[in-house]
Specification:
Helix content is 0%, strand content 43%. By secondary structure, the chain is mostly beta strands. It has a 4-stranded antiparallel sheet, with no helix packed on it.
């Protein structure tokens, strides 16, 4: 289980929401694709997924 702020797209300046859930994937899964913007995917208790900033 992890807790953290959502990963917002570049240029989006709103306050990120904070989510807690289980990690399902780190990054995009493709080598080097997300090297400049690290994130992970989590699954929330309602079974939806969110992308969190690392």
């Amino acid at each position: 289980m992890v807790r953290g702020p959502e990963s917002l797209p570049p240029g989006d300046y709103r306050t990120p929401a904070v989510y807690e859930g289980e990690v399902v994937q780190v990054g995009s899964g493709w080598n080097g694709v997300d090297a400049d913007n690290a994130y992970l995917w989590i699954r929330l208790p309602d079974r939806t997924e969110r992308r969190l900033a690392i």
